[in-house]
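Example (one chain per record):
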Amino acid sequence: MPESSVYHDAIINAVMANAGRSTLPFQQAHTDRHHGTAFWFNDLVDSTPDSEIIRQYLVTAAELTRYDLGELTLRPELCEPVMSAEKLLLTDFADGWTVLGDLGVAVMPTAGLHAHGKRKGWSWATDEITDGLAAHHEDIARIGAEPRTAYILGHDVGETGGERLQAVIVGQVARGDDGHVRWDSTVPEGCAGAPVFVGSELGGDSFKLVCIGLVLTGEKQNRIATFDRIRTAVRESAAAQGAEPAASAPTPGPDREAVRSRSWWRRKPRKR
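Predicted structure:
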C-alpha cells in the first residue's frame, strides 16, 4: 500500500505536534510582495553528558529577504504570555540575513528576536527544527527519482483578506536529472522558505519524521534546499561566528536518548 495512504494522517499529526510552532510568516512591509515563511532551527554544535550547545537561527529562502523593511507576523501561540497577533517591523532587514553561498538559503541569528520579546515583557514559545528532525546525508541519499510523499508546513496568502494562516501542503518530492531534489507541483504563494518533511518507514507501524530542508522560490517544481548542505554551510558562515551558543540541559532519565535520537512515531491502528 502506498506510503501516503498508510501514514498520511499520522505524519501530518507528527509534523504539527513537533513543528507546528516553528514557522513564522513574513513579507516586505507596507507592500503586497515577497510573502514567505521562515522557521526556527537549532543547530547542535556540541553535546556532553551534562549539556548541549546550540546556535539558533531563523531560516528561509534567500530571495525573499532582499529588501530594507521586513514584517514578521507574531502568532499568538508563539508568545508567553499569550497576546494578540501583531506585526514586528525589522529595519535593515536584508542586512540581518546571511546568505549561504549558492544554496538559495538565508539564516538570521535569533538573539535580536529574543531581546525584542524581553523588552516587551514576553518570551518566545516555539518549536524548532532540531538535530533530531533535520535530515543528514543518508536521509537525503534515500531520495531518488521515484516520487515520494512530502509535506510543506507554511503560511500561504489567503484569497480574501490575505491571511497568513498555517497550512500543511501535501505533494511529492523526487530527485531530478540535475541531481537536485524538487517539489512536484506548484507551491502556494507565501510558502516559499517553509520546511519540508517526509516520513521514512521503519517497519511495522512505525516511521521516522525527517525535515529534508526548505522549499525555494519558483513557479513550479521548486528546488528543495536540503539540510545535509544547509547544516554544513551555516557552520562555515559568518552567521555562526555572530550567533552566541546557548547551553541547554538534556532531558534527564531514561528518555534522554530518545529525545536526542531521530524522532520516530508509531501509527495508531485504524478502528474497525
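Caption: The domain at 3-249 is CATH 2.40.10.120 (Thrombin, subunit H).
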